[in-house]
Amino acid sequence: MNISDTVKTLNPRPAYQGEGQEEAERQRGLIEKLKSYPKKPKTFYLSTMGCQMNARDSEKLKGILHEIGAEETTEDQADLVIYNTCCVRENAEQKVYGRLGYLKGIKRKHPGMKIVLCGCMMQEDAVIEKLKKSYPEVDLIFGTYNIYKFPELLLTMLETNDTIIDIWKEQQDIVEDLPSIRKYPFKASVNIMYGCDNFCTYCIVPYVRGRERSRKPENIIAEIESLVQSGVREIQLLGQNVNSYGKGLEEPITFAQLLERVCRIEGLERVRFMTSHPKDLSDELIAAMGKLDKVCPHFHLPLQSGSDRLLKAMNRHYDQARYLDIVRKLRETVPEISITTDIIVGFPGETREDFLETLKVVRESRFDGGFTFIYSPRIGTPAARMEQVDPEESKVNFAELLKVMEEIAEENNARWLGRTVEVLAEEKSKNDSGMITGRTPQNILVHFTAGDRWIGQMAQVRIKETTPFYLIGELA
């Protein structure tokens, strides 16, 4: 049973010769072999946890599986079940173990089922040891550095019928020229860099994604040009910290300069990016936001905490004043900008006074939305060895933060009432088949009354109702 309910497009093979071309050709040869391999999976289920980088990796996994002729189905009916894992928070890891426990019973009834684990969680030594000891039903394990080897690893697993564990401790190649499946044919994400050098004390990402590595600008531009030729209208540039883009390249280039080159691509209508670290956000980038019409007026700027004391303990390399100054400059340069953020509640040592400093920044910054979390200790990070705070106090503060942010978001969204906004229509509304869902340049979700023919098109929508989380409108 095919459960896909969204448009999916197999990316055309790019016309450019990207990074790792020789290795990409080798993996494509193995894809051809898998197409006619008698034991290949006919169906698959893929669950993606974590960030946009993981989502982009899953597009590649899905593209390879579609290329060999496998179709998507439900978790309990699939020949191949893949979990692309995240290790940023503990609940994401526990979810994986819970699903593996569920699959153990399913696999007894479906002995031909193969279980694959990949992604950030697999880069942790303790996780691998636990899987070896307690979850022998897992057939293939690989991490973040060798995802492009999926055709080779899949074929090896099928040929040997052995458990395959292939974990690399560092990046060896950047290989981009492989099949990919996108959720939308008119939107695409493009990796511009990998890894992170910041080593925030709470974060496991530098340990599982490695140090920063930037792609050459000519390869990025060529990939985007190829995507635009295939019908893509909106591009999102991805990196753990896009502000660091260009470091280590032979020819110096800044992220702002890359944005300028991307915006010169004919046929491309919208450009987004994430994520941007406040510590090295340049005035050059802010100025580029103001002058480049194709760059959407939305900025995701993680705060994490408003307390200078905690920001230092987090190793964030900025203080409250620096953060608020960035927000001020962004709003002065791009008056209609929306700013979203990430905030951690309950970081080790957080007091009520620290939390109130965070609320102060939230009220002054007037965020349009954000990802908010209660701190989760990650083994191997410095913060996990710090004195932890009372979880009940964190829950109270967290609820208060959510209330304040929702109130501000509701007030912010109210400014769009009665106005006409441009919306890139994405899909049918999940709650009302007579409505279409899309996003404004500010990345605000809009539901509006329209027919299916608008999907993939830019629509002018008059806003007639607002909520803290989305807008409701009709075609203007």
Task: Give an overview in words.
With 476 residues, the chain is an alpha/beta fold. It folds into three domains: 9-166, Methylthiotransferase, N-terminal domain (Rossmann fold, 3-Layer(aba) Sandwich), CATH 3.40.50.12160; 181-414, tm_1862 like domain (pyruvate-formate lyase- activating enzyme); 420-475, Beta Barrel (OB fold (Dihydrolipoamide Acetyltransferase, E2P)). It is 35% helix and 21% strand. The protein has a six-stranded parallel beta sheet, with helices on both faces. Strands 17-18-19-21-20 form a five-stranded mixed beta barrel. The chain is globular and about 60 Å long. The relative contact order is 0.09.
Map the helices and strands.
Elements: E1 9-10, H1 21-35, E2 43-48, H2 52-67, E3 71-72, E4 80-85, H3 90-109, E5 114-119, H4 125-134, E6 140-142, H5 150-160, E7 164-166, E8 181-182, E9 187-191, E10 193-194, H6 205-209, E11 213-214, H7 217-229, E12 234-238, H8 255-263, E13 270-274, H9 283-291, E14 298-300, H10 308-313, H11 320-333, E15 338-345, H12 352-365, E16 369-374, H13 391-414, E17 420-428, E18 435-439, E19 445-449, E20 458-466, E21 471-475
Parallel strand pairs: 2-3, 2-4, 4-5, 5-6, 6-7, 9-12, 12-13, 14-15, 15-16, 19-21
Antiparallel strand pairs: 1-8, 10-11, 17-18, 17-20, 18-19, 20-21
